[in-house]
Amino acid sequence: MSKEKNPIVKRILLKISGESFKGSKDSGIDPQSINYMAQEIKELVELGIEIGIVVGGGNIWRGAEAEKDGMDRATADYLGMLATIINGIALQDSLEKKYDIDTRTQSALTVQQIAEPYIRRKSIRHLEKKRVVVFAAGTGNPHMTTDTAASLRAIEIEAEILLMAKFGVDGVYSEDPKKNKNASKYDTITYQEALTKKLKIMDSTALALCMDNNLPIIVFDLFTKGNLKNIIIGNKKGTLLSNNNLMK
Fold it and tell me: How many domains does the chain have?
């Protein structure tokens, strides 16, 4: 049997989109998808990786769509934050009940009956104790996406890399591959190139935060089994974004 490779990083921030929680369903939560994600995360826990996770809520609520229908934007965004709390607690339950992984959910909104308030020093302490920390409710502010929350939390907890987990998308493309089969996939790309070409990776605020703080990003398909672990042990998957196309 070949010897296991050593992890290339110690602490990560994993961003999981709301799409990942619904799986093949039109909306809501698919228990099979959550259990699959928990199993993939478990493999990193076994490697000793310190894991922070930011969850999206688009499987339950999309604030931008509600705003188009006439809802106040701030109200729509707060409802989206509540959706991320539902996803975060569901993921915590799967990690703990299925795989006995000590997990804490921290919320940027106050919901103390089900989640801790977000406190940076406390979240770092949890990570040092090898607890998985799920960050819910985005940044706690309207007009900010969960992509921005992922970039901000990654910087705050001093993660070495931000992993943008996608559902059915294996990297960054020149165009939407679902609309144009001739779209080219990037193995590596700089933040500036991504901003200039207006590639739909994450919102520009989130991307600029990573660029200014030299935080590398890998965009990959979480639902290709083993991808998450392969990235952590240095097997290249997805698309790497950085200031110079090189992993720190």
Answer: 1
